[in-house]
Amino acid sequence: MNLAEQDNGQQHLPGPSVAVSTVVEGAGEIGETRDAARDFLESLQAVHGFPVSQRAVGVVQLVVSELVTNAHKYAPGPCLLTLEVSEGAVAVTVWDSSTALPLILPPDPARVGQHGLEIVMAVCRSFEVHREPVGKRIRAAITLADDPNGDPAGHQPV
Q: What is the pLDDT of residue 156?
């Protein structure tokens, strides 16, 4: 079954969304999570026919890297990364065991470092943080076909 249906030139997901999850055990796997995000987006294009801009690929990899790195740095134990597509966007969700909410600092060009979440919030359609019974869940959504340079999205090499 083709998960994308054509209707007046727009892509729609029937029923449930497309998703993949992976447990990240340590810092050595952070690069692998970026690769997994790229592979997931390539599959969306090649197998399911979803439009995915080159910009979206880069932004998703950046967001995955930042959120998983923060989980590894600030929470004990593994974290869970989930990539889920619905309504033309991919949600990057990271669960970790720490109940401490991230500190999102205001922009400060004089500050060295700690700009990661500031950047994530600037490039994402939405950003949410939720405490869970155990730990917290951070979710950022990125539009798949968003490309301000006008590059076409769709069936193209990622």
A: 41
